[in-house]
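Consider the following assembly input.
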Amino acid sequence: ETGVTQTPRHLVMGMTNKKSLKCEQHLGHNAMYWYKQSAKKPLELMFVYNFKEQTENNSVPSRFSPECPNSSHLFLHLHTLQPEDSALYLCASSQEGGTGGEKLFFGSGTQLSVL
Amino acid sequence: GQNIDQPTEMTATEGAIVQINCTYQTSGFNGLFWYQQHAGEAPTFLSYNVLDGLEEKGRFSSFLSRSKGYSYLLLKELQMKDSASYLCARMDSNYQLIWGAGTKLIIKP
């Protein structure tokens, strides 16, 4: 148990569906992250929120829309996805984003399949 | 470029020692992380090196040479539960993490 919980664990959706991924952290951290993990590829940083403000958006397509209502919760809203978006989506948190040596606490991820 | 290079897969025997290497671009360096990820689970923090040398934590040790752009993770007295992927990540000058693709370690009895 890392203190970061993601739901659902698995999601299958069609290209016309709208779904949301949820992440909750119980660690009192102020920074939260969305990563995409594809097989045999490096983790790709998608979004960073620091004290509820979005500080990073790494050229992610607009079909992915993040939301951070408070420091403990992070959502990733999905709509009109493509098959190449199928991957493991990992949420992480840290005490404060943007400082050196800070370790990340990850959730177990949502395995997304787009048909 | 910003590539992090580590072997795709390694195999070792239970009870033995294995060294997983990681090479990276040396410019704009703010530390080197190792994470462990069991299949279907969250990556978990193993180590952080910012100065040259070897840091030991029980059966796991991590080494860094900043001038060579080189790190390794050393696992001793291997156990079956050590079968996992090991992710190397460099922190750049903007405190962004640049990740390797991970090394899948298979432990055989």
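The mean pLDDT of chain A is 92. Ask yourself how this observation constrains the way the partners meet.
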